[in-house]
Amino acid sequence: MGFIDTIKERAKADKKTIILPESMDKRTFDAAEKILKEGIANLIIIGTPEEIAANSEGYDITGATIVDPFNDPNKQKYIDKFVELRGAKGVTPEIAKETMEKDYMYYACLMCKCGDADGAVSGACHSTGNTIRPALQLLKTKPGISSVSGFFLMEVPDCEFGENGLFVFADCAVNPELDSEKLAEVAMLSSESFEAFTGAKSKVAMLSFSSYGSAKHDRVTLVADAVKIAKEKYPQITVDGELQLDAALVPEVAALKAPESPVAGKANTLVFPSLEAGNIGYKLVQRLAKAGAYGPVLQGLSMPVNDLSRGCFADDIVGVVAMTAVQAQNK
Fold it and tell me: What is the per-residue burial (b if ≥16 Cβ within 10 Å, else e) of 141-161?
């Protein structure tokens, strides 16, 4: 059984309610039909009767709850919650109503905040910013967490490295620039994510073009400092670096470059030094090694909200909904 099949089975065992706010996209309904047929999650789809009729034709979404954002009997509750959360930022009832009707992701996050759903998945036809912004404003980060980051769960076929070919790659989706403090926080969150999704012990490698000071540069220092912070601040995780990729993964190289490391040659959670490195890295592995790339999955929010690639297929939405449901179980 592949990784995503295992996640689907876990989702089915304790079904959660996940919102799909993109009723303007046919892929939403293609995915919804599959999710409902497999029993992966309970679904709420936000949309007007016209949007639902125009885009759901040919798909069986029997069992999904449809919420019309213009005529929802619970709407006032969500408006009140919006004003409660953002009134200090100038949000009035009129602004709340207009925002919720214009951007269904705000509506979805308010439903989650009020306890009417367990998570949301968006991004098939909206940018990452449009998915994350409402979540940050309304759901906020977990206590003690400074920022949201994004990871991919990578499943590499016929691979002896990582956890039988399973890896977490982070941050591949959110933060263009990370200082040492935030990089250390990404390491901790990624360690938790790996363990929650795989059930195996995470071994975090903080990646660089240097191993244990073999090169001198400000970018190397940034990673080395992040390792020190992570070890001091999050002693519960197994983390080391800075490490070059081959030293992180290959035992023979690790024996030469970092022989005393608890992670080198055994890493399964890879924290990249920048967004560009992470994004390029996961796409290289996905395309050249024909790896499954599940995500981007967001970590650090108080409730699970996840992003999709705008080039995604319906099956990608199904997989991310299953992962969101498992995140909700772990919460």
Answer: eeeebebbbbbbbbbbeebeb
